[in-house]
Amino acid sequence: MKTMALNSMNELKPLIHLLLPLCVHWIAEEMTVSVLVDVTTNALCPGKTTCSQAIYITGLQQTVVGIFKMVVLPLLGQLADDYGRKPMLLLTVSTTIFPFALLAWDESKAFVYAYYVLRTISYIISQGSIFCIAVAYVADIVEESKRAATFGWITGLFSASHVLGNLLARFLPGEYIFGVSIVLLIFCPVYMKLFLSETVRTNPRRDQQSTCLSTIFKVLQDRYKSMRNSVNVVANSATLRRIAYVSFFYELGMSGITSVLLYYLKSTFGFNKNQFSEILMLVGIGSIFSQILVLPLVNPLIGEKVILCIALLASIIYVSSFHASFYNTLCFTINKLQCFVTFYLSAGNSLWLGMGALGMCHIFFLLFS
């Protein structure tokens, strides 16, 4: 057991210049989550504990990001193959700096609106793509037989970064959070530029601009054909149709509640930055615990189908508890239950049904690398 752990750690050594800035980036992003609710509510609905305007804008933001990511994510992946991982990582990591720089400068209503615009663009470019390009970078360096273990460590670092980000947010004063986050976010591309090695050898090109444009056009064309082929494959497979139905309706319901959850807790229970940080920290700790300890023990006993059913049932109870407006303790307990069983999905083969872009990268990496 110790030998396996040491071997896995040794595989991470060549990736230190990738993992260090990524962990810092995830910490910097996560530490802003808990304070954003207070900032947007105070700016858009001053003097109130609830703000429907912020909820509507968040929903619109998610819709726009989801539509454009269908095109942008594969495009960035193709460009990473053609022009190298390092330039695309620098691009995607850097886009997060500008939205938070606005809020670090001023938290007025106009700046919050500008933040939403820039953050939407940032999400389109960076959300999911950073992790996918990082996975491709790992695949370039690590042997095929050792990729799964290495990827498991990276997933654990991702969860640990979220815990550290919320820990910082819990103890830092609200007025310093965006400033500290900006410093950490700027550190990431600077460190990558100086120390990260390129793993893709690109051939010199005479007409770089025309080649880039033709690549973009080709990727869009291939994306359209790929989507058509995917629809045909799903339509002709009964199993894939059922999976698609479950995935669609699960995401349709859960994306709505997760996008407004913190606003709900603020308006109903009066939660503030510190309480948000504590909840998110416990969720992160629970996810690490379930991925590393619980799932390996439970999965062989009950199987993935039972785990999926438990996760879906827990999600139903989780949403119903908010609809019924139960007491704080009950909602908190259900939240923890949902957290654990949802993260069972993240470590199993049915991960992608509930975990979005991170889950998609994880499962497709394990299947097709």
TrEMBL record:
<feature type="transmembrane region" description="Helical">
    <location>
        <begin position="306"/>
        <end position="330"/>
    </location>
</feature>
<feature type="transmembrane region" description="Helical">
    <location>
        <begin position="350"/>
        <end position="368"/>
    </location>
</feature>
<feature type="transmembrane region" description="Helical">
    <location>
        <begin position="117"/>
        <end position="139"/>
    </location>
</feature>
<keyword id="KW-0813">Transport</keyword>
<feature type="transmembrane region" description="Helical">
    <location>
        <begin position="243"/>
        <end position="264"/>
    </location>
</feature>
<keyword id="KW-0472">Membrane</keyword>
<keyword id="KW-0812">Transmembrane</keyword>
<dbReference type="Pfam" id="PF07690">
    <property type="entry name" value="MFS_1"/>
</dbReference>
<dbReference type="InterPro" id="IPR036259">
    <property type="entry name" value="MFS_trans_sf"/>
</dbReference>
<protein>
    <recommendedName>
        <fullName>Major facilitator superfamily (MFS) profile domain-containing protein</fullName>
    </recommendedName>
</protein>
<feature type="transmembrane region" description="Helical">
    <location>
        <begin position="279"/>
        <end position="299"/>
    </location>
</feature>
<feature type="transmembrane region" description="Helical">
    <location>
        <begin position="176"/>
        <end position="196"/>
    </location>
</feature>
<dbReference type="GO" id="GO:0022857">
    <property type="term" value="F:transmembrane transporter activity"/>
</dbReference>
<dbReference type="GO" id="GO:0016020">
    <property type="term" value="C:membrane"/>
</dbReference>
<feature type="transmembrane region" description="Helical">
    <location>
        <begin position="151"/>
        <end position="170"/>
    </location>
</feature>
<feature type="transmembrane region" description="Helical">
    <location>
        <begin position="88"/>
        <end position="105"/>
    </location>
</feature>
<dbReference type="InterPro" id="IPR011701">
    <property type="entry name" value="MFS"/>
</dbReference>
<keyword id="KW-1133">Transmembrane helix</keyword>
